[in-house]
Amino acid sequence: MELTGAEITVRCLADEGVDYIFGYPGGAVLHIYDEIFKQDRVKHILVRHEQAAVHAADGYARACEKPGCVLVTSGPGVTNAVTGIATAYMDSIPMVIVTGQVPTHAIGQDAFQEVDTVGITRPCVKHNFLVKDVRDLATTIKKAFYIATTGRPGPVLVDIPKDVTIARTEYEYPASVSMRSYNPVLKGHAGQIRKALALLTEAKRPMIYTGGGVVLGSASAELAQFVRNLGFPCTNTLMGLGGYPANDPLFMGMLGMHGTYEANMAMQHCDVLLAIGARFDDRVIGNPKHFFQEDRRIIHVDVDPSSISKRVRVDVPIVGDVREVLSEMNRQLAATGAKPDAAALKAWWTQIELWRARNCLKYDRNAAIIKPQMVIEKLHEITGGDAIVTSDVGQHQMWAAQFYRFDKPRRWINSGGLGTMGFGLPAALGAWLAHPESTVVCVTGEASIQMCIQELSTCKQYRAPIKIVNLNNRYMGMVRQWQEFFHGNRYAESYMDALPDFVKLTESYGHVGMRIEKPEDVEGALREAFSRKDDLVFMDFVTDQTENVFPMVPGGKGLSEMILV
Amino acid sequence: MRHIISLLLENESGALSRVAGLFSARGYNIESLTVAPTEDATLSRMTIVTTGSDDVIEQITKQLNKLVDVVKVVDLSEGEHIERELMLVKVRASGKDREEMKRMADIFRGRIIDVTDKSYTIELTGTGQKLDAFLDALEDGAVLETVRTGASGIGRGERILKV
């Protein structure tokens, strides 16, 4: 039987196993919405702004192992979605975005709500398609899911003109696709793996540094086995937190611009560095010239060859899926029985413990005003360290990363690469839909939350009992911190004047709002909020305006040149 | 260092802009770029002349390979190869210069493909250097117009770029 393009689109999504699609209707996608209305396999989540649709799909994808899915209309629907798409692209999140387009005959005529979607999104998607013939539609959607979820994951966009959604053809969803131009390498080269293990077992000062690739590649168990077997120190990037249990003694904390003293010092002074699913970005190694003042061998495991030797020269490159490579490393280690240099390792740990004793994350626990770090520590305590925590971007993000010690992957959801304010709340909605049984917290600030505050309405519609922890210091805190350190205390436009009353604002959306002003009230407020299982609770914590995030590696400086408390 | 990179890509609309967009987005140089369909109508062959350090060239080939529409990438300058460029040049050819211009075209194995009583249009192929040499050899003011295709390249001997 022949189906319309709109029917085919929705059938494809259902056959692909999509349970939620996040979107916003409009002229070019009305036929697709009509088909969504007529079925119940794919549930539609109506956001209040297209950017939030993409962030919610993103949060969903990060929380479970499935791709996120988005549906928006042409023109402004697409341009609003671009920030979300770029966010997902920078963090390699698997996602398929279906966009409406003006009819094929109108393309290029500056039609109403027309933009060159494929052109606008090209630099921030893994791939995109414009479907001009309904007979190509099902195959294209299959390809989109295949490309989005394999190799280094990423967002893939499918642009469908309105006339294609009306045209009819026979429907058959392909069971698989193969593309001659796209064949990601998954299995690591056995010889390279042997070389890497030889370097690691001979190392005097080894270090393991892992990123988002371990979380996205579901390789935490293999990583833990490998690290514990060797007894090496391990650090995670902002994107990689939860990839290795934070409460394990071998864990060094996060590294990078706001990483721990011990992690950054060990990175700088190790003699063999194993990087897994991480990309040596500027927030992680600081100034590369300074990084290379010390001599070390680098082994780099990544599914994307272009991530290897991009910012640093690598001695042993291993292209492959991180879980496959780590499994093979574990297998070879067991087979050969190779052991690290015990005496050297003992001396290295002695040095590391000295660094650790600096206690770089200390803060004033007896302050008369609420310290943001304390709120996160209490949050960790009260949620048993097992909540899914999303964040926006800025100081609160760094404190959450430093003080909510993530023991499991896919619990920490933030915009690491693009640094998108407004990400946290919609991402929390997506994460909750992926795991409705879990506690979902959005750690945010009074500046970030206002960038997608309208999603409180979406949360009401779907009864999402998210807990919002607003660290309200009346400043764009990270901007203020840079202005204090590097711009002579001139706080240009970083003061958040004319803030709304967040309690009333939340209540007007039909949720519960709380304002907490004293340190002694923090714990009680958190307990009360988390006891309200079915409610969204917005906790507005009035925090110390002058608090800064430490340690800090200033821009252009080396990892060992941290500013400490 | 100058490199000449050959690629096979899906002959689909938008494939060229993916390549061009990659170069501008990542700040790589393009000295010239030529593209046309191959004997297999589903594939296009592109030749890009670029410059950069070894690290940059390695990134360029990796990033090109990462594009979903790109089927194969080869850095021709890694081995023996041949490159040719086509130039059409319209020159002043009147009076006593007319005979001299014909001789210059012959010396450079050019062909005169259009004639008026005041000008010749000469077709010339060769490496970029040879085309430059021809232009340098002409008297000042002799050149009215030039158009060049940019280099196309192919490996020598058994080196074959094919799917």
Features:
heterodimer; A: 565 residues; alpha/beta; 6-stranded parallel beta sheet; 22 helices; 38% helix; globular; B: 163 residues; alpha+beta; 5-stranded antiparallel beta sheet; 4-stranded antiparallel beta sheet; 28% helix; elongated
Any chance you could write out the topology, listing elements then pairs?
The complex is a heterodimer of chains A (565) and B (163).
Chain A: E1 2-4, H1 5-15, E2 20-24, H2 30-37, E3 43-46, H3 50-63, E4 68-72, H4 76-90, E5 95-101, H5 117-121, E6 127-130, H6 137-149, E7 155-161, H7 162-166, E8 168-170, H8 190-202, E9 206-210, H9 212-216, H10 220-230, E10 234-236, E11 251-254, H11 261-269, E12 272-276, H12 282-285, H13 288-291, E13 297-302, E14 316-319, H14 322-336, H15 342-356, H16 372-382, E15 388-391, H17 395-403, E16 412-413, H18 424-434, E17 440-445, H19 455-461, E18 467-472, H20 477-486, H21 502-508, E19 512-516, H22 522-531, E20 537-542
Parallel strand pairs in A: 2-3, 2-4, 4-5, 5-7, 6-7, 9-10, 9-12, 10-11, 12-13, 13-14, 15-16, 15-17, 17-18, 18-20, 19-20
Antiparallel strand pairs in A: 1-8
Helix pairs in contact in A: 1-2, 1-6, 3-4, 3-18, 8-14, 10-14, 11-15, 16-17, 16-22
Chain B: E1 2-10, H1 15-25, E2 32-37, E3 43-51, H2 54-66, E4 70-75, E5 81-92, H3 97-107, E6 111-115, E7 119-126, H4 128-137, E8 143-148, E9 152-155
Antiparallel strand pairs in B: 1-3, 1-4, 2-3, 5-7, 5-8, 5-9, 6-7
What does this entry look like structurally?
The complex is a heterodimer of chains A (565) and B (163). Chain A is α/β, with parallel strands linked by helices and 565 residues long. Chain A has 22 helices and 20 strands. Chain A has a 6-stranded parallel β-sheet, with helices on both faces. In chain A, strands 11-10-9-12-13-14 form a 6-stranded parallel β-sheet, with helices on both faces. Chain A has a 6-stranded parallel β-sheet with strand order 16-15-17-18-20-19, with helices on both faces. Chain A is globular and about 75 Å long. The model of chain A has no long low-confidence stretch (mean pLDDT 97). Chain B is an alpha+beta fold and 163 residues long. Helix content of chain B is 28%, strand content 40%. Chain B is built from 4 helices and 9 strands; from the N terminus they run E-H-E-E-H-E-E-H-E-E-H-E-E. In chain B, strands 5, 6, 7, 8 and 9 form a 5-stranded antiparallel β-sheet that branches. Chain B has a 4-stranded antiparallel β-sheet with strand order 2-3-1-4, with helices on one face. In chain B, strand 2 and strand 3 (43-51) form a beta hairpin. The two termini of chain B are 28 Å apart. The model of chain B has no long low-confidence stretch (mean pLDDT 96). Chains A and B meet through loops of A and helix 1 and helix 2 of B.
